[in-house]
Amino acid sequence: MAEEAKNKKKHIVMVPIMAQGHIIPFLALARKIQHTAATTFTITIASTPLNIQHLKSALSSTSPNQIRLAELPFNSAQHGLPPNTENTEKLHFPQLVKFCHATLSLEAPLRSLISRITEEEGHPPLCIISDLFLGWVNNVANSVSTRNLTFTTCGAYGTLSYISIWSNLPHKKTHSDEFWVPGFPQNHRFHRTQLHRYLREADGTDDWSRFLIPQISHAMKSGGWICNTAEEIEPLGLQLLRKYLQLPVWAVGPLLPPPALRGSKHRSGKESSVTLEACMEWLDLKDENSVVYVSFGSQNTISASQMMALAEGLEKSERSFVWVIRPPVGFDIDGEFREEWLPKGFEEKMRDTKKGLLVQKWGPQLEILSHKSTGVFVSHCGWNSVLESLSNGVPMIGWPLAAEQMYNVKMLVEEMGVAVELTRTVETTICGDEVKKVIDMVMEKEGKGKEMKEKAKEIASHMRKAVTEKGEEEGSSVRAMDDLVMTILSPYSL
Ligand code: UDP
């Protein structure tokens, strides 16, 4: 038995929280580890049954398939959530916190999985890589004396802002609108309006605090953090995050799929509502850098009045656009889209004039952003969206809605100069003219628009360098990945 076990590959178990914006980079990280360490590891991604179905479909195209999947039973109805809700994309924002608390119920199934692996292989997995939002996994790893690493699917700056503000609630210690966040230089100010309503109201005893604060604190006791960013693009964020955590932080990003695995299905297992060919054909008809792409990620939407203003602004701008639309705030985000949410005749007019392509619910985002016709991305600035946009040299119009998106935009505007912020949250009132003005500015061939485009291209070039594999110019993220693999293989004791 012992001899047999020695010959077995070393096992890594990965546990993402059940959200597309996390599962997609977790799968990309698993592929990258396999790619780096060839046949050294067996990797198992553990998630709930419906997410495993999507992952199966995403993996079906990769052969030979070295990534295993393990189901962790989860019953959403037992937690007061709609039946068969296993991913944040199915939820209204107010239900999210209940969903987060419900993820704590995955502890017992994860322990069973680890026991099963231990029994089969004669020893526990070598390492468990867990989501920042599932800090409790650290207890599971400790109980079997296994190394636990945290994967933050956000950038370094956004991660530090998020964990420090939630852990320290600095805005509660001042009446001023501007405040200092522990971990940042004293002169670095955050604004109260950059906090989501739930965070503004948090006092440490509310539902969000009761979930997030312990998860962050557990994750800070793991053996190190893996970050989906690169040294070259986030020098400040990485330096500050390392100092704050006092842990190793491996910047192994951007974790984007190789060209052969592009296509939404390979990344998330989700089919787009428009075929890739139709979307590419539509974009092929447009001039270079002329199209506005609009999407708010996998789980967010804007208010009904904001949606109307955005449509008016897009039309007034007279630019071509692709817009991934889903029902506005207050309606079933996964439900049918109603015509009344857009100006009368808008959809038909945009279709007939070929000015706008409206894509229901899920579009082939990475391919749209990689297309030469795409000139700007109106985005909620979720971190995956940021990386996908910048890796293609596409500047952004930020409209942050939740999570760490406000801090991402702050960095994109203040540190990188590749974005302009249109508005924040679903609570603001905007008008079509404001939308048009910002689009015009970013699309300008001169002035600020030109500057932003150049900076975005420069970042794309840094990103390419960071993941360059061969020769003396080996990129920083490749070196970080090698070091991560060495660390996972090194002896471990609690
Ligand atoms: N995505 C996509 N099509 C869509 C919407 C989202 O492929 O219509 C992908 C997008 O490319 C990204 C992820 O879903 O990889 C969303 O992650 P992000 O961090 O940007 O935002 P979140 O959904 O976590 O808020």
From TrEMBL:
UniProt keyword Transmembrane helix present: no
All residue ranges annotated as the Glycosyltransferase N-terminal domain in the record: 12-257
UniProt keyword terms in alphabetical order: Glycosyltransferase, Transferase
Keyword Transferase among record annotations: yes
Main enzyme class: transferase
A Gene Ontology molecular function term of the record: UDP-glucosyltransferase activity
EC annotation from Swiss-Prot or TrEMBL: 2.4.1.-
One Pfam family cited in the UniProt record for this chain: Glyco_transf_N
Gene3D superfamilies: Glycogen Phosphorylase B
Family: Belongs to the UDP-glycosyltransferase family.
Name of the molecule in the record: Glycosyltransferase
